[in-house]
Amino acid sequence: MSKKIALVTGSSSGFGRLISEALARAGHVVYASMRDVAGRNAKNTAEMAELSGQEDIDLRPIELDVQSEPSVNSAVEKIIAEAGRIDVVVHNAGHMMFGPAEAFTPDQFAQQYDVNVLGTQRVNRAVLPHMRRRYEGLLVWVSSSSSAGGTPPYLSPYFAAKAAMDSLAVQYARELARWGIETTIVVPGAFTKGTNHFAHSGSPADQARLAEYEADGPYVGFGETVRNAFAAIVPDDADPAPVADMIVDVVNAPFGERPFRIHYDPTEDGANIGFSVLDRLRAEMLHRVGLGDLLKPARKA
Q1: pLDDT tens-place string over residues 155-210
Q2: Sheet harboring 88-91: ordered strands across?
Q3: Are strands 261-264 and 88-91 parallel, antiparallel or unpaired?
Q4: Cβ atoms within 10 A of the Cβ of 257, count?
Q5: DSSP of 211-273
Q6: How far apart are CA 181 and CA 296, in angstroms?
Q7: What is the pTM of this model?
Q8: 277-292 confidence digits (pLDDT tens)
């Protein structure tokens, strides 16, 4: 196994933290990116530095705000200057909002899209020129089972953004295959423990509209109903750590043997079935129009 230079977005907590640490423990050089490493994430930065020393692993916290193009460009330039290349990008940064769709302002929907979708675009535009010059690289996208499985209400901003990100990942895979750049889309299910999605979720800005749902009418107390229903279907022993382990396996796999999509969903909401149908239909269409080669990354001639 060759040592990879990996950039993981949203590494301060949750999946990002687990993925960064797992990749570093597997022997890779990991740039664990997050916002405000000298401020609100100073504690996380210090913990990562301490872990690196204790376990003799190469885990490097780095300032990167996926909502800022200058921040993204600066981080990528720093990594290239230090390490000479970026082999792997893990698109993990994301944010959740919880509440009735109508109570969120358009600006709040735009913010969700900015973090979960445009953030990946900023990172790709900074990293891909380097990967394309080398005809080599791997993009790992952390998607959501909601994009093709069961979708409880009150999570529409997040679900809509994640569905858009998944669609973008599929399109990028086709447009990068001839450059020898591989794609793996990771589809986790819902976790109520081990991540901060629910604990840190945003709420509707239009409180008056929210009250019309939650305080009166047919949806009184519905937010609590949804939370309880979610908690009831997530097994008590559901652990997000295997998601990180699966990504390590993908990174360690040889060229051409990395899966296009992988699933880890203790709630079994059916996304594995939904995506298998969608991905097959998309593949069949490419074959019909004579573009079947885009389904597999090509080695540099």
Answers
A1: 999 999 999 999 999 999 999 999 999 999 999 987 765 555 555 688 999 999 99
A2: 59-63, 29-34, 5-8, 88-91, 137-142, 181-188, 261-264
A3: unpaired
A4: 8
A5: HHHHTSGGGTTHHHHHHHHHHHHS-TT--SHHHHHHHHHHHHSPTT-S-SEEEE-TT--SHHH
A6: 9
A7: 0.94
A8: 999 999 999 999 999 9
Q: Coil, strand, or helix at residue 12?
A: coil
Using the structure block, give the residue that is written with the tokens 């209400």: 153
β-strand partners of 6: 30, 88
Taking all residues of the chain, what is their mean pLDDT, rounded to a whole number? Answer: 93
pLDDT (0 to 100) of residue 95: 87
- 158 classed as catalytic: yes
* Residue 279 CB neighbour total at 10 angstroms: 16
84: number of Cβ within 10 Å: 9
HSE-CB for 216 with a 13 A CA cutoff: 4
Q: What are the structure tokens assigned to 80, written together?
A: 């290239």
Give residue 198's pLDDT: 58
Q: Which residue in the list 158, 172, 213, 264 is annotated as catalytic?
A: 158
Q: Are 131 and 179 in contact (CB under 8 A)?
A: yes
The pLDDT tens digits of the residues spanning 39-72 come to 999 999 999 999 999 999 999 999 999 999 999 9
What CA–CA distance (Å, rounded) separates 212 from 261?
Answer: 40
